[in-house]
Design a protein that fits this description.
With 579 residues, the chain is an alpha/beta fold. The protein has three domains: 2-116 and 153-277, Alpha/Beta hydrolase fold, catalytic domain (Rossmann fold), CATH 3.40.50; 290-516, Alpha/Beta hydrolase fold, catalytic domain (Rossmann fold); 519-578. It is built from 19 helices and twelve strands. The strands form three sheets. The protein has a six-stranded parallel beta sheet with strand order 6-5-7-8-9-10, with helices on both faces. A four-stranded parallel beta sheet has the order 1-2-3-4, with helices on both faces. Helix 1 crosses helix 7 (250-261), helix 11 (340-360) packs across helix 12 (373-384) and helix 18 packs antiparallel against helix 19.
Length: 579
């Protein structure tokens, strides 16, 4: 950062400037210090600097690459929590800083504000590094993962930062529009400043997509402000690494100096419109009061979600303005579903959808209809993302653990109503997710077969006394669409009708199998170990015996066994990726 430091010293030379440029733990790419701890440590390091040198006229936060996300969250935690936003546990004890009102602007350089992701367009070097870090982060034991892992697209830290920034900006927009007066500010630091953001991006930056570098939705135009508060400046002939190499690069040096010190009116002259990077930017619609997510599960193309969305819209014809969303993460087979890091990636994908909806519909409450893995998405999101919240939640064929803590979410008002419908013959849940429920660290379970343990302990946590009559999709059958829609729109608990759609007890043959908890472990043992070993016996015999020419009987059996084993694994791959 030496060139950036030099430009900062030069830009403020006439006024005088102190520069604090700490070497952060992630200078070593494999350091595993969590993002939240780094923010807390930075706050504690800045406090004595301000106390020693007295009050500054202004403070400018500068962040390069990953540091851009950290600089934004550093300010947000220092400024205090806007009303209604739910912080992560590591930040709950953080107190607002008296120096926060002096933060005039944030300058980010090549910052990937939406988070990084690997796509088919990522250059080979960045793709290799990011895939390696992602693999280490997902597979490492004891929750060890590189700091950069916290900044991937859809990760809890990235999503919470984006939601926090939106909440803060909207809070100040209400202040500017006189919707909130001084006595209602709710923060101990009066009139905490709403800083401008200047984002410098290299035109040749291929570390990740330009639409991941620029968070257009979150940093969009604020109609409450008479002047722009976000400035997007492109640096010509600049890639990700060279964005902070300023020696001999006159244009980049001048752009950074202007970004640091020029007033907004001057920045507007050199800034460009980031919305021109794409032609499908959703427009904000404050009239929408409710957004409904309808999410499909495993082994499912999700076409049924559109039918339920249609019924929801029909139910809402005389109600407040509602939008029903049916995004799809594609066909999701059984094996990928069993792998925890693949499931988490789907949650991250969903939470990116959640942020997009939150930016487009600023005044809306969110509700949720989930089937199978769709139930996992919402349950895991509520656990990992402190500010995620839903008004009404409907679960069918749930793969969530029976002991999931809904009471805590209900008491915190992060969920207003939850209705779960178990099915009588749901062998998918009974034999697979339920079979691993005994392992506390595995976040799958049998709520779609047994129901939730806490059902009945809160008036807004409901479950039918009967079971849906059928298999995995019984609770989202056509006969239930109207009931689901009324629950989502009006909060009316679905009746156990028609009578043919519900039964008193579960399938007798399935109950003992479910209680044995042998489903998934037995499948892995039989098809992953026993069958391949039996098929490979001729190969083992030939390898362990005396050296014989390949043209004898044992040699040909070994060759045939090799092809059989390879064919078996190819067939197994086909099954587990499509079934």
């Amino acid at each position: 950062m030496k060139d950036v430091i030099a430009v900062a010293q030069s830009a403020f030379k006439s006024e005088g400037v102190d520069v604090y440029a700490p070497k952060l733990p992630y200078a070593n790419r494999l350091r595993s210090v969590r993002a939240e701890k780094i923010i807390v440590d930075l706050l504690d390091a800045i406090d004595p600097i301000v106390a020693l040198h007295g009050a500054y006229e202004r403070i400018v936060l500068v962040g390069f690459s990953l540091g851009g996300i950290f600089a934004r969250r550093l300010f947000l935690i220092a400024a205090g929590n806007p009303p209604g936003f739910q912080l992560e546990k590591p930040f709950e004890s953080a107190h607002p800083r008296a120096w926060a009102p002096q933060v005039e602007r944030l300058v980010t350089i090549s910052a990937f504000n939406r988070g990084w992701q690997v796509t088919g367009r990522t250059d080979w070097y960045s793709s290799f590094i990011l895939n390696l870090l992602g693999l280490i982060g997902h597979l490492s034991p004891h929750d060890w993962r590189p700091t950069l892992f916290d900044a991937r697209l859809g990760s809890p830290f990235t999503v919470q930062t984006r939601l926090h920034w939106m909440a803060y900006r909207r809070w100040h927009a209400d202040i500017r529009s006189s919707k909130i007066v001084d006595k209602d500010l709710g923060l101990p630091v009066s009139r905490t400043r709403d800083p401008i953001v200047v984002q410098l991006v290299g035109r040749q930056d291929s570390f990740t997509s330009p639409l991941d570098l620029v968070d257009i939705a979150v940093d969009g135009h604020d109609p409450s402000s008479p002047h722009p508060r976000y400035f997007y400046i492109e640096m010509p002939d600049t890639n990700h690494e060279r964005a902070i190499v300023l020696t001999g690069a006159t244009a980049r040096k001048e752009m950074l100096a202007e970004a640091l010190a020029q007033p907004p009116q001057a920045l507007a002259v050199i800034a460009s419109d980031p919305s021109l990077l794409a032609d499908d930017i959703p427009q904000s619609d404050p009239s929408v009061t409710d957004v409904i997510f309808i999410m499909h599960g495993i082994r499912d193309d999700g076409f049924w979600t559109h039918h339920i969305a249609k019924v929801v819209r029909e139910q809402a014809a005389k109600a407040p303005v509602i939008r029903a969303r049916t995004p799809s993460y594609g066909y999701f087979a059984m094996l990928p579903f069993v792998l925890p890091w693949i499931r988490r990636q789907k949650v991250e994908w969903f939470m990116d959808q959640y942020v997009a909806a939150a930016t487009q519909f600023p005044n809306a409450d969110f509700s949720y209809v989930g089937h199978s893995n769709g139930t996992y998405l919402a349950a895991r999101a509520l656990k990992d993302y402190a500010d995620a919240h839903f008004k009404h939640v409907f679960f069918a064929g749930s793969v969530v653990r029976r002991d999931y803590d809904w009471l805590d979410l209900l008491s915190a008002a992060r969920v207003k109503k939850i209705h779960n419908v178990p099915a009588a013959a749901d062998w998918v849940v009974a034999l697979l997710p339920k079979s691993v429920e005994g392992w506390k660290k595995i976040d799958l379970g049998g709520a779609g077969f047994d129901g939730f343990d806490q059902a009945g302990k809160h008036p807004d946590l409901t479950q039918p006394t009967l079971f849906a009559n059928g298999k995995h999709s019984a609770a989202i059958a056509e006969s239930q669409w109207e009931h689901i829609a009324r629950f989502i729109v009006h909060g009316t608990v679905p009746p156990e009708l028609p009578s043919t759609a519900f039964v008193k007890s579960r399938a007798q043959w399935l109950v003992p199998l479910a209680r044995s908890h042998l489903g998934l472990p037995l499948l892995v043992l039989v098809f992953g170990i026993v069958f391949p070993a039996l098929l490979a016996i001729p190969l083992f015999i030939y390898a362990a015996g005396p050296a014989l020419p390949l043209d004898n009987q044992s040699g040909w059996e070994a060759i045939a066994s090799s092809f059989v084993v390879m064919g078996y694994f190819l067939l197994l791959k086909l099954v587990v990726t499509r079934v």
